[in-house]
């Protein structure tokens, strides 16, 4: 089975940055601790876009991604940020080194 990566962009009003970052980092910690198939979860803070976060997530396989997507941590994060995030973009990616030649 191939690993699955996501690149997620979350947009919000800049004045909510600290509150959303706090919730996102707590979600990151729970995901890495409690979900064995969550291999990597990085939160990137653009220097020139105060109302945006980029998130890189890496999962062991499709089942791990499904478990994360339906899990308690993401549900908690969504409840905490529901009215605060104005736009979310997701890009599902394969890892280049795992693609056939």
Automatic annotation (TrEMBL):
Domain (ABM): residue spans on this chain: 4-95
InterPro entries per UniProt: ABM_dom, Dimeric_a/b-barrel
Database matches in Pfam families: ABM
Highest taxon in the source lineage: Bacteria
Protein known as: ABM domain-containing protein
Gene source species: Geothrix limicola
């Amino acid at each position: 089975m191939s690993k699955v990566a996501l690149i997620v962009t979350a947009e919000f009003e800049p004045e909510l940055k600290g509150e959303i970052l706090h919730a996102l980092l707590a979600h990151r910690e729970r995901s890495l601790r409690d979900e064995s198939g969550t291999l990597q979860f990085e939160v990137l803070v653009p220097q020139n876009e105060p109302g945006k976060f980029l998130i890189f997530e890496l999962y062991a396989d499709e089942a791990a991604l499904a478990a994360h997507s339906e899990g308690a941590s993401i549900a908690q994060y969504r409840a905490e940020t529901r009215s605060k995030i104005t736009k979310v973009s997701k890009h599902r990616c394969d890892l280049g080194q795992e693609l056939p030649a």
